[in-house]
Structure prediction request, 331 residues.
Amino acid sequence: MIQSLPLLPRAASTIAGNVDALFSYILGVSLFFATLIAVLIVVFAIRYRRRPGRELAPSSAGNLPLEIGWMVVPLAIAMTMFVWGASVFVAMRSPPDNSLQVYVVGRRWMWKVQHVEGKREIDSLHVPVGRPVKLTMTSEDVIHSFYIPAFRLKQDAVPGRYTILWFEATKAGRYHLFCAEYCGTQHSRMIGDIVALEPAEYQAWLAGESAPGAGTVSMVDAGQDLFNQLGCATCHKMDGEGRGPILAGVPGSHVALANGATVVADDSYLRESILDPQAKVTRGFQPIMPTYKGLVSEDQLLQLIEYIKSLQPPARVAQAAQGAQPAAARE
Prediction:
């Protein structure tokens, strides 16, 4: 791993190393050409200055190779910056499939963290070293910005939508967490820590209780309890006999809508379907689902989504769905 710049904390993630390398390259190229141009200005000013016997500099008809060179070379350097920067950006926006899922909700003035296993934290995030961690983030009030300087990462948490951020800590330690978007009078107090633990220590922390005498309920179990309390199971029955569609297998699939369009059932779609069910009605069903806006918090929305993502269709329903597909699709 390369050495980080003096004004930045030492890089502590795989992405941070790539960002530092790109930044060092751009800085090095900029310093080289800035120095070259400054030196040439001084040299030319002295050598070609006006003096007795040489009042007028000789004219030049141009130098084609030189002119081509100072167009091609900067273009090549700029393209290397663009391609390198684009590859780093794509990598930062493409979490690995084996990433550890963690949910983050920003509110004035704290970061609320939920682990899938049930652990909750405030202004702190415990992660294992050497394991990619995917953060799904949103905000309860205004725009916040989740900023980890040591990881060279920053991502806004926006009300009404989900944003994604991922990283992989390379060494154990405690790293600063800030809100980098002004969010009110106590913005400067919206700080926290990323605690990177060795895998064994992380598992021990994960197995511990959040508070003395307090049990840990997974997000799936909490979402299931909420699903039943809100009466969702009345319409979304697993046997397909309810007034709403079967939710098992929906996350990540393509859903056909009543207006003829098709949408990918990602987390944002599930969130919208809970808060504004009339926005995208599933084909073959009536728009009778009520809104749950104001009845569930952002934390509870995440629990419901995690529960829906965990559902598996009964064997006979899955077989019926497979049998309904064309023979070419099954092959």
Q: What stands out?
A: The first helix runs from residue 14 to 47. The domain at 219-323 is CATH 1.10.760.10 (Cytochrome Bc1 Complex; Chain D, domain 2).
